């Protein structure tokens, strides 16, 4: 796999190159420490994977937009720290970056180096795939919307939530595969892109009208029989936590009134078996279509397994949720 590095720090460039060289099938094709060279470098020698310093992503993701328009490739953001970079990270994801990795401080930091290479390995599995397209709870009587998402999810979520009116009558609970340290930034970023109120789901929370609650991880989120949200230690043998399946299954087990569940862009199959149980329990089930998915993995499994009653393009999902929610209330 051809990997390019664009980073403002020469030290980080050197460290990344050494980490990449430790994997035989990876090769560094070019590096730059200048933001104004990135677009032309990608055009002249398009990599399979670009490790892009979040500082180079540009205002409103301008650098990423340019890359995706001219020489699209898989993009993994790198950042020395999460604090202070949240808005820039998720804006970059909106325009095509797929994930973010925290830069190890040195080669002696074994845990950080392993985590960095884990992120690169995940991206290597995506590099051969297509690049991103341009951009009811019984106790309260509040219709529940359960959403699961993975790679490409932040962009899809902001598109969907941006279409909701201020006085939405339901509650949305999101399980997004993302490192727990990035969840506060994701919630804050989504809150800026919707008229609804977006918050991190906390132990003891209950669904509230007009609220969007985001699972924080690394534990799994469930909803209990008294319609309270609670975190539990991961029960399933899966690399993805919080687990979409665990949350979906808890909805079927503990809620007597069916709601609506959505599966968005992502690799793997987390959420599919849970969605199938929801369908069998008379929940409305929707998955994102291939044309608008960054990664057509989870949505494809939901569609082909019959778990999803409807396969919809991204711009049709919010209207479908609103229509179904209104029908529940009538």
How is this structure best described in words?
The protein is built from 11 helices and 14 strands. The protein is elongated and about 60 Å long. 35% of the residues lie in helices and 20% in strands. It folds into 2 domains: 125 residues, 3-Layer(aba) Sandwich (Rossmann fold); 186 residues, Methylesterase CheB, C-terminal domain (Rossmann fold). About 2% of the residues have low confidence. The longest helix has 17 residues. Strand 4, helix 4 and strand 5 form a beta-alpha-beta unit.
Map the helices and strands.
Layout: E1 2-6, H1 10-21, E2 27-32, H2 38-44, E3 49-53, H3 62-70, E4 74-79, H4 86-95, E5 99-102, H5 110-126, E6 144-149, H6 153-161, E7 171-176, H7 183-191, E8 197-200, E9 211-214, E10 220-223, E11 229-232, H8 244-254, E12 260-263, H9 272-280, E13 284-288, H10 298-304, E14 310-312, H11 314-329
Parallel strand pairs: 1-2, 1-3, 3-4, 4-5, 6-7, 6-12, 7-9, 8-9, 12-13, 13-14
Antiparallel strand pairs: 10-11
Helix pairs in contact: 2-3, 4-6, 4-7, 6-11, 8-9, 9-10
């Amino acid at each position: 796999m051809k990997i390019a590095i664009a980073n403002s720090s020469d030290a980080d460039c050197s460290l990344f190159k050494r980490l990449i060289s430790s994997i035989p099938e990876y090769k560094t094709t070019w590096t730059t420490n200048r933001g104004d060279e990135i677009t032309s470098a990608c055009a002249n020698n398009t990599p399979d994977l670009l490790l892009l310093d979040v500082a180079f992503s540009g205002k409103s993701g301008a650098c990423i937009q340019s890359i995706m328009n001219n020489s699209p490739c898989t993009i993994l953001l790198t950042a020395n720290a999460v604090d202070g970079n949240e808005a820039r990270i998720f804006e970059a994801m909106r325009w095509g970056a797929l994930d973010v990795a925290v830069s190890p401080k040195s080669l002696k930091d074994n845990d950080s180096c392993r985590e960095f290479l884990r992120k690169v390995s995940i991206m290597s599995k995506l590099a051969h795939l297509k690049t991103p397209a341009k951009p009811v709870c019984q106790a309260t009587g509040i219709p529940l919307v359960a959403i699961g998402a993975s790679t490409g999810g932040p962009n899809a979520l902001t598109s969907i939530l941006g279409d909701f009116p201020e006085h939405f009558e339901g509650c949305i609970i999101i399980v997004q595969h993302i490192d727990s340290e990035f969840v506060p930034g994701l919630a804050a970023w989504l809150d800026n892109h919707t008229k609804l109120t977006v918050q991190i789901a906390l132990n003891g929370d209950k669904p509230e009208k007009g609220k969007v609650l985001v699972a924080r991880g690394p534990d799994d989120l469930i909803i209990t029989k008294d319609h309270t949200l609670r975190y539990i230690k991961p029960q399933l043998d899966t690399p993805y936590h919080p687990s979409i399946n665990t949350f979906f299954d808890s909805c079927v087990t503990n809620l007597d009134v069916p709601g609506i569940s959505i599966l968005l862009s992502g690799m793997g199959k987390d959420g599919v078996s849970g969605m199938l149980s929801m369908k069998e329990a008379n929940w409305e089930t929707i998955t994102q279509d291939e044309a608008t998915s960054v990664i057509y993995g989870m949505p494809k499994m939901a569609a082909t397994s019959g778990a999803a009653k409807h396969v919809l393009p991204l711009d049709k999902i919010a209207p479908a949720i609103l229509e179904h929610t209104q029908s529940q209330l009538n």
